[in-house]
Amino acid sequence: MAAEEPVTIPRLTWFSLVGDLRQRGRGRRESGAFLLGRGDGKDRRVVDYVCYDDLDPHALDQGIVVFHGEGFSKLWAMCAERKLQVLADIHTHPGRDVRQSSIDQDHAMVPVSGHVAMIAPFFGRTSRWSLNEVGIHLLQDGARWKRFYARDHNAPIRLCNW
Q1: pLDDT tens across 71-130, in order?
Q2: Whether 118 contacts 89, CB under 8 Å
Q3: Residue 161: what are its φ and ψ, rounded to 5°?
Q4: Average pLDDT, the chain
Q5: Helix and strand totals (H; E) in the chain
Q6: Domains of the chain (ranges plus CATH)?
Q7: Residue 135 CB coordination number (10 Å)
Q8: How far is residue 20's CA from residue 44's CA, in Å, rounded to a whole number?
Q9: CA–CA distance, 125 with 71 (Å, rounded to integer)
Q10: CA atoms within 13 A on the CB side of 51
Q11: How far apart are CA 7 and CA 118, in angstroms?
Q12: Can you give the pTM of this predicted structure?
């Protein structure tokens, strides 16, 4: 990912996304979404997102995210139809810990080097205007993850105004 620009999320999109994650998790279960954009390496801007349970109605039934193959089929069809790519994903954790669990590390939603996975604390009850409380994780070659903070100058994802 060294040569690629960071993924950018317009602030209003982030505001809406966090609200959706809160609502879908209802303060008692994990929720998540895929962040979609054109991703040509220069302008990696999120233009939309799709929540896991819109693609897989049973993804949140167990309290944790369990995303099934049929959901991926719908996701890839949607991306092809709209000429978009998955630029990142996000899911929530119950407490303040936004580190990846061993399950998160071993089962990337998009297991491709350079993919960005985020974790929001408190079932999505995080700032709707900042990434400061969010765990940011970059999948590297060899299925290794590197963690970033929003304040890091080389963070692979950031908010933008538009």
Answers
A1: 999 999 999 999 999 999 999 999 999 999 999 999 999 999 999 999 999 999 999 999
A2: yes
A3: -75, -35
A4: 94
A5: 4, 8
A6: 7-160 (3.40.140.10)
A7: 21
A8: 22
A9: 25
A10: 22
A11: 12
A12: 0.95
- For residues 46 and 37, give the distance between their C-alpha atoms in angstroms, rounded to a whole number: 5
Element (H, E) at 160: strand 157-160
- Closest by Cα among 17, 32, 4 to 115: 4
How would you write 104-140 as a 3-class SS string? HHHCCCCCCCCCEEEEECHHHCCCCCCCCCCEEEEEE
**Strands 7-10 and 157-160, bridge-based pairing:** parallel
Strand 46-51 to strand 157-160: parallel, antiparallel, or no bridges (unpaired)?
unpaired
Question: Which residue in the block uniquely carries the two structure tokens 């895929």?
Answer: 34
Angstrom distance (rounded) from CA 50 to CA 89: 10
What string of DSSP letters covers 32-73?
A: EEEEEE---SS--BEEEEEEHHHH-TTTTTTSS----HHHHH
DSSP state of 6: P
The one-letter amino acid code at 109 reads: M
Q: Give phi and psi for 150, each to the nearest 5.
A: -55, -30
Q: Output the CA torsion 107→12→132→33 (10° steps).
A: -10
Cα 71 to Cα 27: distance, rounded to the nearest angstrom: 23
